[in-house]
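Inverse folding, one chain.
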């Protein structure tokens, strides 16, 4: 009986020690840097695995920007390849919107409004070549239009200096 108490006590101590080590490891683990943060007057955008659409949502939340975009439009944004260090909120949005097919940006000194639209997939786009439009022929001159039937006005003075 004495040995089983010793074994239970040793096991409990080992579990508590393991839990304490785990808690210290979790507390010491670096917290991931947010993908969007304000740095002085500028903004820093760090591309992550979530993609440019999530980065757009994060920038909108962090800056108070009114973001008008469908889930499809955000999902179709191309990924950013490098971190962005922008001097202003408008510059941060301009850098991020290079990943969007269609967008509009309106900023004033305090905030921005952003619209992102998804382009139609290439298979559903319909392009009409310019040459396919019929070309209208120039109208033929009529027999009644002669030099004598056209009203003439005198030339303004000084337009043609005399010899």
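Residues assigned per position:
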């Amino acid at each position: 009986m004495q040995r089983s108490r010793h074994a239970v006590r040793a096991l409990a101590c080992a579990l508590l020690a393991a839990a304490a080590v785990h808690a210290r490891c979790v507390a010491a683990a670096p917290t991931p840097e947010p993908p969007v943060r304000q740095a002085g007057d500028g903004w820093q955008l760090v591309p992550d695995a979530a993609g440019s659409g999530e980065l757009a949502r994060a920038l909108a939340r962090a800056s108070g920007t009114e973001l008008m975009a469908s889930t499809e439009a955000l999902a179709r944004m191309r990924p950013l390849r490098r971190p962005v260090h922008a001097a202003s909120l408008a510059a941060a949005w301009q850098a991020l919107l290079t990943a969007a097919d269609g967008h509009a940006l309106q900023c004033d000194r305090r905030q921005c409004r952003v619209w992102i639209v998804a382009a139609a997939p290439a298979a559903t786009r319909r392009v009409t070549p310019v040459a396919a439009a019929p070309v209208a022929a120039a109208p033929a001159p009529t027999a009644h239009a002669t030099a004598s039937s056209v009203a003439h006005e005198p030339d303004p003075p000084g337009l043609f200096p005399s010899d």
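The helical segments are 2-28, 52-63, 71-75, 89-97. The domain at 36-117 is CATH 3.55.50 (Phage tail protein beta-alpha-beta fold).
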